[in-house]
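Re: beginner question about structure tokens

> Can someone show what the tokenized structure looks like for a real chain? I only ever see the sequence side.

Sure, here's an example I had lying around. Input first:
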Amino acid sequence: MIAVLYKQGQECDTLSEAMPLGCLVATTTASVLLLTPRLTDGSPNIQCRNFKTPQGLLGSISRRMSSLIFGPISTHQSTETRLVKLLSQKKDSHTLEVQILCSQTLQYWQVNRTFEKCIWIIY
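And the corresponding structure tokens:
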């Protein structure tokens, strides 16, 4: 998986334990991956899940609400998102809470063995 990141020109910024699910890898451009070790037919491998932020109507409503609450958002924004900090903690024995602070957003995720769900994003 690290080879795939390297091929795409991304650099690993943070490697964080996310037990019992595996570990989180965050790149300098704020891509976040959950890497889960697996044993398939006696051979070890790694399942990789990419956190994808929701797109569409609700995302644009969220941006407008943030702008109403916090004031206008600068129209001069860098086209590249940068990772500032990634934090994770167990919510319960099966669920992990992940907070991702980027140059342009603050995101809150819940992750378990079957899904990763973005609970909220502040733009």
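Each token stands for a local structural state, so reading them left to right follows the chain. The chain has a mean pLDDT of 82.
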